[in-house]
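[Automated response] Your request has been received and processed.

Submitted sequence:
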Amino acid sequence: MKRFLFVAVLLLGCLPIGVSIAGCGSEQSSYCDATNKQRVNQPVSVLLEPQFSSVSLAFTQTRLLATPTAKNCLGSVVAVPSYVYSSTNPSLLDVAPNGNMCAGSWNRNTGGGIANYTICSAPSQATIEGLLSKGGDNYSNFSVQVTASAGTVTSNPVTVFSHPQVSSVVSYPTTTSTTCTPPAGVTCNSNSTLTPSACVSQSAASASGGLQLCSLVCAEALVQSGSGYTTQLTDITSAAGQITYTPVNTNVVNVGTTGLANPIFPGSTVVTANVSGVTASAGLFSTCPPVKMQFQSPGATTPTFISVAPGNTAALQLTTIDSTGASINPSGLAYTSSTPSTIGVGATGIVSPLYGGNADVYASCLPPACNPSPLDYLGLLGNGDPVVSNAVRVNAPGTVSSIVYMANFSNGPYFSVLNTNSNVVTPVQLPYNPNSMVISQDGSKLYFGSDTELMSYYTSPLGQAAVDLSVPGKVLAVAPNGTTLVISGQTKPQVGQSKGLPIVYIYTVATATYGTEGTVSPATRAQFSADGNTIYILAGDQEYIYSLNNGWTIQPVVSGATNGTDVAVLTPSVGAFYSGANTQAVSYCGAQTAPPTTAGPGSGTVFYPATSTAIVSDRLGISNDGLHLFAATSANSSTTPYTFTDACVSIAPYTNYAGGVCTAPVTPSGEEPVPITACPGTTISTGNKTYSTAGLLPANATVTGVPVSTTNSLAAGATTFFTAYTAFLTYEGGTASGSGAVLPYYQVFDGHAAPAGLSSLTLKDPGSSTAPQIPTAGVVSPDNSTLYVTTSGDAAVHFVTIPSTANGAAPSGPPFEDTSLNPPQSTELPGIGGGYVPADAMVVRAVRTN
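Generated structure:
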């Protein structure tokens, strides 16, 4: 028993020894190395932010320093219970125990229950005068070094500027030097801002280019005056510390921490300067604008004419030159096709024909997506001006069939579908009587307006998509990308009103939401620009323009340009025409009544400058390439002459009109008619030839439309195009004379022959009692080869073949021919009194030929 107790005591006595040995091992791992001199929980360095910049505080301002970071000998972060902060001049900048800085002095032992370090007072006048007496520039000695210590380890110093309250920041013209020296006359009293006399090319961004942004920081502060001191507005830039410059548009310029501004993409932007919590406009920075865009097919014999089979693609090359002559790469470019339903062009300029046909494709730099500018500086140095490339003409070999949709707006809730490949017409019943019809550019959706609701239908397979009771009215237009509709409606009648007030809905299809704008008269016509960003709307005698970027503009009516009934948009979006007694041309190049200069901003911004032309028009049509405007008038009586005008559109400095006819475009230096450079002017001019339509239209007829076909070809080895333009006239009312419906048409070949004037085609008469009488509506096929036209009398659809150019030569054979079946296919649109009625509107989409 005694032996057992002895062993137990011995074991218990050994335990502390074992524990002590283990403890020695743990103690050993607490050191950095075998010398046992530096523990791992002890800091060897302290980092205080900011390391690479300074802090600027105006007198009485406070700022809490960032918590320092302490690291041990192994580079790991270690915890420090508290730091001791130091300032090289506590009278100028005081630091509380928690790291809160005061530009001046913190209160201590104030009494009255006021806690220490809660009131920051400005430095005493004695402190300020003492620093000023040391000489140097004004307030050049008003900076301190702040550090944080953990035991014997002290952080890196942080420079803190403590200075009088900033009252203003005066910026002055930039220089290429990194040293800011204000030019003569620039003082704290001069109110200068940066308004460059020259832009910086985007090409300088990859070199050592850029501009140094410079400013004076000004304050009401003490300055030496003789043997004493006085308070006045003075330059304290040397005491203000780092000025932070921030561009409003960060896509135009990047400004580094030193104020060096490097261009990014073309455009101009206001830059703000911030120092010590005070923000002021530093002025304007300009990245040089594009002035010419050359679009072509690399390696092609004729770079601006290519042939691409449907289903294939072709990459086009865009060369953009800025105002310094440098080659650049703008952002926000838009690519458009004159016939996107058959020949598309992607966001990078890749052409991809879906069907046979032809088109002109363009590249555009349209503000604000490309080359933006503040409105007050619109046009200064060329920023804010649109630029459009030359056209590349694309031919897609092959034929295409069409699906034609027809509607009558006064004979019941129907529309009909004509498959031109099978020549079968299918009637479709709608929920309500339609009053309008449009089709999306890709042909996937139909929209019908009515007095009750908006109705939409898918085209393939055919079926109803949606209805919306919140937007009754007439559908006037659909955006190129199909996202937005323009609907003419009216508000709900108020008490005492028989009907509501006219209103325009800008309707978003995906969300079924809309914005509205009241109009004096009901809107009757609307057209989108090719990029979808601008809508031109006609309501009575008033012209409205809606921009996704600038909102609504009520366009002033140019003297004489009244009684309009139609609007047409130039391709590719360079402007628009409003019909009237003097057709009004509207430019896309914004201008100002008081233009901006290098001395300051402009005023009186006019987004869409307009001019009046001598053309009288009721209905308008425009060729795909934008070079021809076709205008027709309706007569009010048999004594009023009908007219048809072929107007050759010119945008200075280019002209394509001479000797009474349209000619091949005449341009400076042998260039294409486009590029038009950067908004060379705000005037769209027209040279024109006017013809009488007397004898072609019945008395008292009203022109309903001017369908236009544009075809072009290039002979082997040739460098100039042969382009055929054909315009038709549809109409209603009046009394048909003679046998069969007379379809007036006009064809001209640019640059090769004078037009022969107006002609007409008598549409096919099957010899029955229901002979065709008047062509009421028509639409050109997507490949520009056929006009589908509906006629009263027989209530049928006629197919009119349009002769097109081939191999750079005029068409051969019969000029025009009605190739319809005999008898032509009925519209299948039921009339209220029985039988069928002609269409009031026709739209078309392309389908592959089987």
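Summary generated for your ticket: The helical segments are 2-28, 125-132, 237-240. The CA atoms of residues 47 and 69 lie 5 Å apart.
If you did not submit this request, please reply to this message.
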